[in-house]
């Protein structure tokens, strides 16, 4: 795919060279891929990668910017021959397999926009009071990552993010599936016909009877124990250094999150397949 896009970009120029003419890449594609993987996994700067591979810093930057979207387009691996690239495919997969999905939002710290930049305060999170972007993560009942949404400013609420991603329409028009969510998604249950399950509402704000306190706490813990696996999936994502705190351009965060989700899901599928074989 990278080679085809590179050739198409060369062929689109007014001046066309003869086949094989022009400057040769000092950094072959395998090295470009390795540099991108090291950058995503360990957060190594482009300067250090340039020293390792013996090229200029701009070459590493260009290589990472070319390979990262390709990794994001691969989607999340469910089985060796099935990959999920959109939220619609995730809902269809859950409906066919009969599995329960779990959704949650995660925040990734980013640099604050410069003074005078438009919408500078959009990235301030109301939860952590820091500049961040937010992505919606969907996992199965075992905590395996199925999909990550493109990054949005952290000021966007979880329920708003889910609605803008088209989750409500997909659940209403799609198969009957069960999606577990936390209290940040309360309100999606009635809109999706009960397909989104959130913690129970608290009916008594003051002077609740003891029997209700016990029942509410028991229901809340039961729901939390079912959806805790999505926290494990997010923790595996945050093990990648590029998602602990992003110091690069905020415009690249969507490709970064989706590329890491695809790589992590491939690793989880490979580990699951090896365990079944043994």
Order of helices and strands: HHHHEEHEEEEHHEHEHH
Instruction: Classify the oligomer.
Output: single chain
Which stretches of 5+ consecutive residues score pLDDT under 50? none
Give the mean pLDDT.
Answer: 89
Q: State the end-to-end CA separation.
A: 34 Å
Strand content range: 5-15%
* Overall strand count: 8
Notable characteristics:
single chain, 278 residues, alpha/beta, six-stranded mixed β-sheet, two-stranded antiparallel ribbon, elongated
Question: What topology emerges from the helices and strands here?
Answer:
Blueprint: H1 2-11, H2 29-42, H3 46-53, H4 57-73, E1 76-79, E2 82-84, H5 87-97, E3 100-109, E4 132-139, E5 145-148, E6 152-153, H6 158-164, H7 167-173, E7 178-180, H8 188-191, E8 196-197, H9 210-238, H10 253-277
Parallel strand pairs: 3-7, 7-8
Antiparallel strand pairs: 1-2, 3-4, 4-5, 4-6
Helix pairs in contact: 2-4, 3-4, 4-10
């Amino acid at each position: 795919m990278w080679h085809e896009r590179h050739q198409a970009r060369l062929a689109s120029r007014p001046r066309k060279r003869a086949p094989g003419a022009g400057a040769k890449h000092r950094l072959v594609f395998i090295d470009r891929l390795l540099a991108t993987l090291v950058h995503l996994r360990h957060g190594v700067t482009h300067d250090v990668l340039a020293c390792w591979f013996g090229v200029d810093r701009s070459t590493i930057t260009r290589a990472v910017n070319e390979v990262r979207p390709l990794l994001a387009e691969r989607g999340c691996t469910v089985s060796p021959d099935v990959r999920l690239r959109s939220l619609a495919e995730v809902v269809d997969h859950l409906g066919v397999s009969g599995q329960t999905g779990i959704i949650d939002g995660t925040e990734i710290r980013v640099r604050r926009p410069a003074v005078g930049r438009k919408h500078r305060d959009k990235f301030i999170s109301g939860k952590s009071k820091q500049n961040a972007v937010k992505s919606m993560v969907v996992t199965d009942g075992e905590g395996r990552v199925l999909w990550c949404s493109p990054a949005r400013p952290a000021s966007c609420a979880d329920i708003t993010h889910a609605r803008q991603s088209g989750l409500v329409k997909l659940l209403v028009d799609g198969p009957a599936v069960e999606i577990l969510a936390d209290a940040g998604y309360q309100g999606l249950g009635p809109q999706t016909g009960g397909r989104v399950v959130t913690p129970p509402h608290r009916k008594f704000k003051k002077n609740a009877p003891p029997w209700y306190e016990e029942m509410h706490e028991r229901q809340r813990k039961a729901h939390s124990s079912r959806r805790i696996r999505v926290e494990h999936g997010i923790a595996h994502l945050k093990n990648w250094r590029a998602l602990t705190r992003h110091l690069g351009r905020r415009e690249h965060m969507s490709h970064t999150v989706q590329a890491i989700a695809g790589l992590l899901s491939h690793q989880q599928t490979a580990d699951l397949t090896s365990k079944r074989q043994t």
